[in-house]
Fold:
Amino acid sequence: MSSPVPAIQIENLGYAYGRAEAVHDLTLTVQPGRCYGLFGRNGAGKTTTMKCLLNLLRPRRGQVRIFGLDPERHEVEVKRRLAYVPDQVAFYPWMSVRETLDYLASFRSHWNRKTEQDLLDRFRLDPAQRVGSLSKGQRTQVALIAAVCPETDLLVLDEPTSGLDPIVRREFIETVIGAYQEGNPGKRSILVSTHLITEFEGLIDEFTIVDHGRSVLSLGSDHAREHYQKIRARFAQALPELDLKAALRVRRNGRELELIANGGGAELLERLRQHNPEALTTESLTLEEIFVATLQS
Amino acid sequence: MILQINFKSGMPIYLQVVDQIKAAAAAGALRPGEMLPSIRPLAEELRVNRNTIAKAYSELESLGVIETLPGRGCFLTENHTALRKEVRRKLLIAEIDQAIVQAHHLQVPRNEFIELLHERLDALDDKRRANEDHKEV
Structure:
């Protein structure tokens, strides 16, 4: 069985602004139909990586492929098959929402009018309003509508929710992604970069955490939540001597102990049980907690 | 039927959906022939990927719990026993064994474990009855 051509393939990507290295030896693959998260703090190299994918920057090292194509040599073909929402969206301020969408649609061979109308209604956007007078959240909503309606095979979102208030963030990101995937389930892929991980928790299938331009961790979300555990134990007396080297992080406070396990949680639990704790609980880490734990260790 | 995803349970999201729909069916919160929510609205409500819900539904379908009627949606099957009796027993035994191991570690003795089992079966019956009463109102 031949495996499908990945939506995105990044191999040993390197990029530097002058002598400042922004991305170093980054490798990741996004399979068709997946929603892939690129997590990192500000300045970690997320935007640079995306710009290399879109041929806005030329990789210094390694290579990037979109649907198996080199975005530099097949720029038109690649851009035809993807939609991109940059972190700062800019429109012509004098155009109305309607004119803006028509203008953007004119560059596309296909545009789903029904999806457009649905999303305009759901976001309560007035097509007659000038985009110059929209709030930042509304401008992002227009940009996302424009990215979803061409129904491309790949959607690239760079920090789509940063700078928006929490209510707006909660409301629309899953709406947009749901609308996008609905048309061709299992085929449409998404690459989204963010440092606001919580609101993407349930949407992300797989992720890579980047830090200082390097990939620190790549995992499937379900697997990650199964793997990373927070274990809390409370003992009757002061803490016994314990071998806890397997833990990623240990916090002690009197009779209490909090561990973060990166795999090997069952063994650690067993070791704690032998000392008859008064209380022993365990829970999985959320993706955001995994992000924080990974970058702090 | 109201589903709730817990990202801290360590259980894959699609399996949480599968288990909760199975539980709802067992408790009568979802009745045979009743329609399940469509994939996209449910995905949006739970704030999860629509593919995750699709995966859960196809798992439920392969288990014979639900059936998909093209163009109409997914429905709880009238008699969801697509699996043969031995297979069903085998699947259940695996789950019971796990609970027994857990009981051992939590120092719950045999008689207490069996008592608990009765209690939980009764609780499920009560829930089912409550859902039935609700239906009559």
User: Anything to note?
Assistant: Chain A touches chain B through 28 residues (CB under 8 Å). The CA atoms of residues 143 and 216 of chain A lie 31 Å apart. The first helix of chain A runs from residue 46 to 53.
